[in-house]
Design goal:
The two termini are about 20 Å apart. It is elongated, with a radius of gyration of 18 Å. The chain is about 35% helix and about 15% strand. Helix 6 runs parallel beside helix 10. Strand 4 and strand 5 form a beta hairpin. A 6-stranded parallel sheet has the order 3-2-1-7-8-9, with helices on both faces. Strands 5-4-6 form a 3-stranded antiparallel sheet. The chain folds into 2 domains: about 150 residues, 3-Layer(aba) Sandwich (Rossmann fold), CATH 3.40.50.1220; about 80 residues, SIR2/SIRT2 'Small Domain' (2-Layer Sandwich). The longest helix is centred in the C-terminal third of the chain and has 13 residues. With about 240 residues, it is of the alpha/beta class.
Length: about 240
């Protein structure tokens, strides 16, 4: 394993066109639970399955219950970036990393200092009135009770992609372009099980594919470097913080 970390360090040092594609595992070291692990969100017991609660239909038909779950299980006001977030932000500042493509909605990449972040599934830090379009921040929704409403009377909807909703086309296009043009693609903290997001890596044309994840993935056999360790630990070793 040490040999692979050494190879990753050399790969990063020799490239100025890196793109990072990440999932929930990037934020678990910050205390944000993932979805599919033993202790993940989808293995907890609720009145409804989390996949049902986090759907467009449920949001429309049981809005109050949606927000009870959303505040309790999706919002983490005290979490901070970890070594993975800071390492990626540093690589961007050094001109090596061109973009972060993330499935996460927690905003921790930006909190660590990353500027070019394509959030495939949106962000808990952006909320909009469905009636007038007024913007509301994280704190407003987190501190609200019941169904958060705008001063105009409209319902405030988090700018997160729910089940049954499509991805933002502009963000999708930017993500595809960044991945397709990358010399090095580092994939971290994701089981590559969520589509269409996971399908984006098929646009990568290079031969320096790096997979960093605690468990194996279906794409390990295609990677040049595979490291089965927590991504914060790995990037903390590879990038001088």
């Amino acid at each position: 394993m040490e040999e692979n970390i050494k190879r990753l360090k050399e790969t990063i040092e020799n490239s100025n066109n890196i793109v990072f594609f990440g999932g929930a595992g990037v934020s678990t070291e910050s205390g944000v639970p993932d979805f599919r692990s033993v202790d993940g969100l989808y293995n907890q017991k609720y009145k409804y399955p989390p996949e049902t609660i986090l759907s467009h239909t449920f949001f429309r038909t049981k809005t109050r219950e949606f927000f009870e779950f959303y505040r309790d299980k999706m919002l983490f006001p005290d979490v901070k970036p970890n070594k993975a977030h800071y390492a990626l932000a540093k690589l961007e500042k050094e001109g090596k990393l061109k973009a972060v493509v993330t499935q996460n909605i927690d905003g921790l990449h930006q909190a660590a200092g990353s500027k070019v972040v394509y959030e495939l599934h949106g962000s808990v830090h952006r909320n909009y009135c469905e009636k007038c379009g007024k913007f509301y921040d994280f704190d407003y929704v987190y501190n609200s009770t019941g169904i958060p409403e705008c001063e105009c009377g409209g319902i405030i909807k988090p700018d997160v992609v729910l089940y049954e909703e499509g991805l933002n086309q502009e963000i999708l296009n930017n993500s595809v372009r960044a991945i397709a043009n990358a010399d090095v693609l580092i994939i971290g903290g994701t089981s590559l099980a969520v589509y269409p997001a996971a399908g984006l890596i098929d646009y990568y044309k290079g031969n320096k594919l790096v997979l960093i994840n605690k468990s194996t993935t279906a794409r390990d056999c295609y990677a040049d470097i595979v490291i089965n360790q927590p991504i914060g630990e790995v990037l903390g070793q590879v990038v001088d913080l």
